[in-house]
Amino acid sequence: MGRAGREVKRPKQEDGQRLQEAAVQLLEQQQNLCSLLREVGNPEPCNTSCAQNGELSQEECEGISYAITGSLLVCELRRRASLLGVPVVALSVKTVLERLMQITGTEEMKEEEENRRGLLTSSQRVQLCILLESSKELLSQGALCPKQLWLEYRRDRRLPKLEVVYHLHFHNILTLKYIIESDEGLTEWLVPQLKGLCGWTPSQGEEEIKQVQQKVLSTVVGVLVGTGFELSHEPAAADRRISLLCCSALDSILLWLLDTVEKSLMLQSAGGEAELWIQIFDTSLCGVSASADALQHFFKHSLTQILTYKPRLTVSDAIARQNEWTFAKASRLVTSLLRKLAVIFSVEQLLCHLQQVLETHEVNWKHVLCFLSTLLVYNPCAQPSLKELLSRLLSAAFEGYDLENMITVFLLARQGALEGPGIFPSYSDWFKMSFGGGSGYHASSKKSLVFLLKFLSDLVPFEPPQYLKVHILHPPYVPVKHRNLLMEYISLAKTRLADLKESVEDMGLYEDVSGGSGASVQCQAKQDVEKAVSLFESTGKISATVMEASIFRRPYFLTRFLPALLSARMLPVKADARMSFIEALKKADKIPAAQYSSYVESCQKERQQHRTALCLDTNDDPLEILKIQLQEFTELVVEGNDGEMSAQLSRISHTLSVIFPGRPDELMGHTVIRLHINSRPSPELHVKGINMILRNFCQCMLDASRANPPNKQSLWASWFVRVLLGNTQLLCILIHRLWDLFHNQGSSLSATHILGLAAFAVHLHASMSHSPLVQLVPPILPKPVPVGEALSSALVCSTHTDMLFCVRLCVAAVCYGICRGDSLSQQQQQDYILSSFYKKLLYVIPRLLPEARQTPITAGGPTSPYQDENLPGLWRSAADANSTWRKTAWHLWRNPSFCQLEHVPRYQLLFSEWLANELRVQRSEDALTDPERQEYQQWACLELYLSRPEEQGGCGGDMKQLCSHLLNAIMDQHLGVEGLEQLDYRETKTGTCLPDILSRLQELVYEMEVTGLSASCRGRRADACDFLFDVVSQRCSPTATSASPSISTELGLQHTLNTWNRVLLALPAVLFIKVKTEGGRTTLECNKLIEHVNQHQRKVCSPAGLLSCHLTAHLLRGVLCASVRCARSGEEVNRAWSQISLRCPLLLVSAVHWWERLSPVLLSLWCRLCDGEPLPEQLQLLTSCQNWACSLEKRLSLTPAPAAAALLLAASLHRVWQVHGCNSQAFSAALSMLQQERGVQWQQVLVFLLFLSVNDYLSALLYPQERSHQKAGMLCTDLLPTMVDSADWLLIFKSNDRGVYQSTAMVTSDDFTQLMPWAFYSLLLQQSAELLQRAVCCPGFLHTAVLCYISLQQLFLDGHRLTPTTDDQMEPLKILSKAKQFLLRAIPQTSPTALSSGQLTQLESWCADLDPEVAAALSLHLDRQSLSPEMDFL
Length: 1434
Description:
By secondary structure, this protein is mostly helical. The protein is built from 72 helices and 4 strands.
């Protein structure tokens, strides 16, 4: 009951009636209607009752309140009007107006309003809203006339308040449209108040005032746009007047805005009022007060007003000042306004409207060009549309010879070029494309050509110099008959350049001038030097441009080019391309001697001082600006605002051109960047800038990846990278920094850095059409490569640490590329996946993840539990800092897109590439243990690559192919590719995987041999002997080395064979002797071995004419071991050795030389193979010959010589005398014993012995550290008297006709054979006069002597420099001189019948060119008539 006592009774209808009666009685006592209106405007009693009853809503209570107060006011107004005898409407208008003036009209309020630029205070705003709500009730009951209210309000030209007008419109009492239509003085108060409202900025924290200000402005502008720009088919005159009035008001505001912007640029003020007005230009106006068509009409009209604003700048002004009007330099207010106006139109519509304005109006060129820049920057797809517009304008210009169109085309093309190559082609490229060919617009007639040249000539007085340079360097195509017209223009342009103090002489040799300001003369000269050095390095010749400049542009060449080329530096130990280029110029007499001497001295000082100071730029302002711009760009990436990102990148590009000033606008095309990987660091300013760029990109990538996977992100990353590609200097330093990070600092990079740098590398690769090729210096890679491949070369997988970084980076890069290219075509997707990074993964993942070997990738895609892993999941795994690389790599390995790429040729890891990677692994720092490495390598060879088709990089099931790859890789590793050694010097310290790969080769070759034997009965044996010798023959063939012999070719061949010998010694000896079965008999075939020794081993023996002991023993072991497969082993050894002795004299001589060491080894081997049987007779013969030679050396009685070949006997004698250090007396006594034996064989033994001694003599002369030439010369001196009377000894000095001694040519190298004429005279001139006289009388001596003299002359002419190696050795030139003197003395002493007529004629013809004096002596002393004709048949 207590609670019921406290309840408030619910109001009833009769309560309201009683309340109304009471209120009427009260009103009768109230005489002031205005005060009454103020009082009844307070609905507190009702609110209180509503709050008390708690059941009615606030809206219902307010409705009841206003209904009650409205009824009360109407009753009172009618009562008062009847008393006064006036209409109720007139009285209500007067009452409302008085109350309105009370709210807004006090002096204090006016002063405050002035400060607030027409806006009311919060209390005024509340009172006004209450008054207007009461007025609405009066209006609903017919007691108020809005039109009469407005007339009374405007009486005496009272100026209305803009916010009051807004509230009248908002509360539907008086619409703005009615006010606009009825108020004749509208522009007097509306425009000034709009300006005032725009120019006022509320203080901090007044958010309500800001909202009211924005609402008032947007509402008023919306009504003006809807009223002024709504199109109708047949508008009445009044409608046209109103429309023009609205347009005029909006135009006034816009012009005031442009004036404000212009003033803010001059005063460098903020221009806040303009920013507020620009915010009004929004598509949100559409649908409220204006239709879509009206809004488009208004925006197009406003754009026209901007483009035609104060057209004071002439065309000449635009041409001269265009560089100052790029997007980055333009006012942000202007670009923001232009962007707001352009957002609802397509690019084609905007360009079409621009063309229309240009054709029909006088324009403000600054605004026109800024508008074009804004359009291009915010719309990357605008380039094709602009190109199409330029093409149309050019066609129209040449069709009607219209100068206006020509001016428009050139200005628009240049403006696009100023925004950089990522947005529009450079001006030079556009000019060449438009006028550089015979199909250009101007090439159709002479009139068109004259029109173009006349136009260009008219531009000359106003042209900036960079455009004149373009026209001179890339002149328009002109037929030969009209060449004089072009020369007139070029002369005029050069004169203008001279006036600008930019002489043509200062133009670069290879200058590619773009639309931007050109580089300084010094900078251009440096670029010319780099280009010239690059061309010299690639061609080996001085370019024609440099040679022409040294003649026709000598001032530039001497004062600019040479100083840039000859700048002081610390010269490398090994001459680089620059040094070689300088030497080439010096030899061509293009460098003055004094200048060259100064260069040498400065370089020496540089080396002595070892200057390490860097050129630092202490001005941090550009970096601070760049830092702020990059931070703003990061925020824009998070917001996803593409247009603002593009604009910000344009500003960043401008700042980068300040930090990296060298050629900021150059479009490089096919330019090659030389990346010196071991060079000094760049200036600190540049390094800081690059680090800032990379850190920002990584942060942007991290922020963007948190929100979306790569395929859902905007194109911000591509735009970011494209901005960097336009600056050669920046790009070069950037690539150098990336290379250094990847190669030297990979282990210190965080997961965020790796993810960002991987994505950065992907976009560099994807933009390769816009980027240059990279040539690494030192030349790690044989030729210039794309940026991505150059960076990949920095990833060296030689240690466990290197492999971990490589797999993390490459997994991130490939994951990003796959996700980024999703939903694109296959070709476009591959643009985002670096093949070199993909190949790294094909190598590293199976090596580090054994489970990956069990499930090799296939085109069919994955079959693991991760088969359904989608791209977002893959990217989450790659971007998750908590995810392990193993998990991400395994996900990627099973991804279908990843698997499909392996079947694209350029993504296939070839077996040779796998081997190259494996051979670079350092065994001591490998991730795998020795057993694990063996298991992995066997899997790769036998399971992965052996069965894989050859077109996919495998061996197609061919074991020979597999072994061939292994053998070539091992030899390449032994040869030591210079670039790889320089790339990773660490591998030489701990050893590579070469022993492991050599083990794999041993296993596979032996398996091939065994399986070949098992298949011999089926007639398809795979012989390892043929295979091995074929492989090495291919590597040693002339086509594999060089077409023309040279020192480098010979050294390369020597290195190759020395490497092959190491491999040969590591393989089983039995593999090198072929065993074949014919007619049921098994025999040994040594043809391949003999051919190999004669063709290849002979050329690289050291000393010449002698195989190494290890190699000789290995080959002989092979013969013995292979003979076991034959039924009669001993007979087969004898037969094989007989064949070797006859056809391979080098192996015979080597076996004799090393027999003392080889005999016990071979005897032991033979006993093991044949159960103690004695050595075969042919091998025992070696021992017999050795014993015979020893007995002869010990001056024992002459024992019968073994029945052996003359060469074998001579070699035995030669070896014994070498070993026992024979003295002259012992040697003479032995020769005397031999002379007792008369016969052809003993004569041959002596000749062979002389040959071997001469070979020793040559070796001692060329390599004195190994042998004594005096000792070798003494043997020859002792031998000569015993055979000087015979003609046989002369045969060994002939190159072609050696008769029975032809086998000597197969003992020594071709180089030694070529030097035999030198040995001939070197030995002969040391002999006594008596011996020389005997020699002259020897048959055939003169012919041999003249041939040797001719060959000796030819040696010197071919450039052989036989430098003496000891003090007592005769100078080569003295030998040549004394040989001539000896020959001139010998000719008269020779019998006239010593030469046939044919021989004389031949010798005379040869000597006529080389030495006419000798030819004359032959002709004078040898009468042709006395010569024996029979000699011609000898």
